[in-house]
Amino acid sequence: LCRELSDLETQNEQMLAQMNQLKEEEKSCQELLETYDFTEWEITEWSEQQAVFNFLYDSIELTIVFGPPIDGDVFGEDPSRKIVSLNFESLLDEEEAPPSSCLVQRLIFQFIESQGCWQEKCPTLYYLPQVLHDVSLVVSRCKILGEEIEFLERWGGKYNLLKMDINDTKVKLLFSASTAFAKFELTLSLSASYPSVSLPFTVQKQIGNIGEEEISAVLSNVPVGYHYLRRIVSLIHQNLLQDPR
């Protein structure tokens, strides 16, 4: 009897452990889904003639003009209904907006313009969800990039990052560290594909021996992906700027 009770207790413990493991896996999956939720659009108008969608804190507007409604389609949402035109417009005040927001906007419109004629990609309502998804994906990635830049502007000193400048789609990072007797400027060329591709770069030495070869060795160890820019800065600090060279 004692052995049976002991076996039962063991089974209960195993089941409890499995349940806890499943709960952790469920939590992990939920967090992953939230991380990759690319619904970055809001509908601001849906009338008989057109629909208007906003992205990125109302700084980008997408206007879609519909063709004539199909007979029997009371709400004008028949997937085969034609789309006459599809137009993106920037509503960002570039004179008032911070440089990071202007950069994000440029990269998003770089993607939009690279796709050619959007009306050909989306001739009917059937294709609209895919268009919204594709744009949302790029908006989400670029929005995270903007947050990374804002983070580095605020906390860059922790990584020996003296100054950041944004010029068109290039980000210039000025590093300086007395312990490593080094000062250099790293220029990264960004695109709408961020953070899924490696970033072209140039290095300008000012003090010390850290140049293109040393930076290239570090960047080759930084995998593309989430928080790519922050990880680049962190690894340069960790590998090149903390100890005397």
TrEMBL record:
GO biological process: attachment of spindle microtubules to kinetochore; protein localization to kinetochore
Annotated Gene Ontology cellular component terms: nucleus
InterPro entries: Blinkin, Knl1_RWD_C
Origin: domain of life: Eukaryota
Domain Knl1 C-terminal RWD: 3-146
Pfam families: Knl1_RWD_C
Protein name: KNL1 protein
Organism lineage string: Eukaryota, Metazoa, Chordata, Craniata, Vertebrata
Gene (UniProt): Knl1
